[in-house]
């Protein structure tokens, strides 16, 4: 991947241990990042007034040691490419976010950054039947949109499962690429980098910290035209993503939950405040004027229909399902398995099943 001199200088500047405000101050003081490099010697005092003496020495040493060229070689060796705010691939929608990243560090298909994008996020405690619904919506939306999500188990993983096969998937990391191998879902992240795109605002050496996760959420919201929240409690990070999206004027959608269900208390609050109540794919596509419907469900046999009618959004124990359907539990088991294969029901553990 080739870079202009401005892009190289921006990558060098972003790699310095300077906070966002000081980097922005330097960019404001110079015409472009290349000017910082080209005129470093003659404007050292001005630069040092912004960065401090210690950082000024570090910048000088970095430039003497090869500057951007040395840094880019290390990134190339690690399989990392860079999309700077001066690059054609930089998403225009992201520029409206709070403190838009100067550089996006990427592994995978960077062309996805210029596609239409829709975000799907959820908490780690996403109920199985909700995860299945989120997966189906991600699969359907991955035609007109590239799906944007995080990398936690639960709702994020459901979105990944739905969009991964199409390759139209962008996963936003809360750490640098040097820490992917140690992540709890490292194998899945590797698959995403091969079929879709991994992206982060953090230099490779940056580990995950408490602050990097909410900061990452603003990027998910900033990249997307809309955000679907599939699960989340009152204080879930998914609500941070939703709030960023709302503040940016993006459409926010949320699955409804039963009153008192802690897994979806945050979703219900979002619907009460500003999110669009969402039950299926069409609830989303109609907002964007997209004529797209979910795949027609496979027909049910008489026994399957009888059992399906006994299921609801909340998990039900098999003993109760059998009683309502007028079946023995031994007869019920193969029917439930067929409903699961037809993507009409899901096992929620503890001999409980729910409708998808």
TrEMBL record:
DprA winged helix domain boundaries: 295-351
Gene Ontology biological process: DNA-mediated transformation
One Pfam family hit: WHD_DprA
Domain of life: Bacteria
Domain Smf/DprA SLOG: 82-286
Family, per entry: Belongs to the DprA/Smf family.
Name of the protein described by the UniProt record: DNA-protecting protein DprA
Source organism: Candidatus Borkfalkia avistercoris
């Amino acid at each position: 991947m080739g870079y202009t001199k401005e892009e190289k200088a921006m990558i060098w500047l972003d790699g310095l241990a300077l906070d966002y405000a000081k980097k922005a101050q330097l960019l404001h003081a110079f015409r472009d990042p290349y000017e910082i490099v080209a005129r470093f010697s003659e404007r050292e005092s001005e630069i040092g007034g912004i960065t401090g003496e210690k950082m000024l020495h570090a910048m000088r040493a970095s430039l003497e040691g090869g500057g951007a060229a040395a840094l880019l070689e290390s990134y190339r060796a690690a399989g990392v490419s860079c999309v700077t705010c001066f690059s054609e691939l930089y998403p225009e929608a992201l520029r409206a976010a709070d403190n838009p990243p100067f550089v996006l560090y990427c592994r995978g298909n960077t062309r996805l950054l210029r596609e239409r994008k829709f975000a799907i996020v959820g908490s780690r405690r996403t109920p199985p039947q909700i995860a299945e619904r989120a997966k189906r919506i991600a699969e359907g939306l991955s035609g007109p949109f590239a799906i944007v999500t995080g990398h936690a188990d639960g709702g994020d993983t459901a979105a990944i499962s739905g969009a991964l096969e199409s390759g139209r998937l962008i996963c936003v990391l809360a750490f640098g690429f040097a820490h992917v191998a140690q992540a709890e879902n490292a194998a899945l992240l590797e698959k995403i980098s091969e079929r879709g795109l991994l992206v982060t605002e953090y230099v490779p050496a940056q580990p995950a910290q408490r602050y990097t996760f909410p900061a990452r959420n603003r990027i998910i919201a900033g990249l997307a035209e809309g955000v679907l929240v599939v699960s989340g409690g009152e204080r879930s990070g998914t609500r941070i993503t939703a709030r960023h999206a709302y503040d940016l004027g993006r459409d926010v959608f949320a699955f409804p939950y039963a009153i008192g269900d802690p897994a979806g208390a945050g979703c219900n609050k979002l619907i009460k405040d500003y999110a669009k109540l969402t039950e299926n794919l069409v609830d989303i596509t109609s907002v964007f004027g997209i004529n797209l419907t979910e795949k027609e469900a496979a027909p049910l046999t008489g026994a399957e229909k009888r059992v399906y009618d006994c299921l609801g959004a909340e998990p039900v124990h098999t003993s109760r399902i059998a009683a309502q359907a007028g079946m023995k539990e031994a007869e019920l088991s193969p029917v439930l398995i067929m409903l699961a294969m037809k993507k009409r029901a899901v096992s929620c553990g503890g001999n409980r099943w729910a409708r998808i």
